[in-house]
Amino acid sequence: MASxxxxxxxxxxxxxxxxxxxxxxxxxxxxxxxxxxxxxDNITFVSDLKGHDGPVWQVAWAHPRxxxxxxxxxxDRKVIVWKETDNGWSKFFEYGRHKASVNSVAWAPHEYGxxxxxxxxxxxxxxxxxxxxxxxxxxxxxxxxxxxIYQPAHQIGATSVSWAPAQSSSSGFAEASEGAxxxxxxxxxxxxxVWKYDKEAGELVAENSLQEHSGWVRDVAWSPNVGLPxxxxxxxxxxxxxxxxxQRDAGQ
Length: 252
Hints:
Layout: E1 12-17, E2 23-28, E3 32-39, E4 42-50, E5 56-61, E6 69-74, E7 79-85, E8 88-95, E9 102-107, E10 115-120, E11 124-130, E12 145-152, E13 158-163, E14 181-187, E15 192-198, E16 203-210, E17 217-222, E18 231-237, E19 242-247
Antiparallel strand pairs: 1-2, 2-3, 3-4, 5-6, 6-7, 7-8, 9-10, 10-11, 11-12, 13-14, 14-15, 15-16, 17-18, 18-19
């Protein structure tokens, strides 16, 4: 076990390892995101990422096929995508359409390209899809964003978001026509909602509304598919409830 002295000046809200377990990202109420190298028990500081103007709630690493890319979200209503190049870490793209705190960010399975979902206290969920992004691209231009979805999802606010696996041999939540994408969100309305992402139409279509929680839904997670004949979503709420939702047949 290794201890990390992050030097954050306030509460740490999230810590995530990258795909290979060689990088650690942390975020804090001190408005900073920090990057560390991890080699066995040796953890060394790499960089401070400064760009947010409020507490940073969550960090999310993209798949390494796109290079070293990290998404962060904050109380300042912004989502920032950071990227490492030969000159170090810098801002790759900033998204500021949300009108309240952005509470959660999640990258879609890499098979769908560089695609990021965001959940905000303004009640909306947004999805950003980037085109032709290679590790050599340092900064995203306006025309690099193929699709931007921004639509109502939860009354009062959306707290969390998670993507379904790219492929499934089951007939559950993840079953879809070729190329279909699904995600799940949780909200302050006590609802867990399953969405289909219609990339051509540029919108999310609600498929299931799961309403057993009696408190704000604080987090959701779509289970990786390992060839089981069903799909599972976990959700937890502010009042201590945890539910596991399983679907074996479409529409059930």
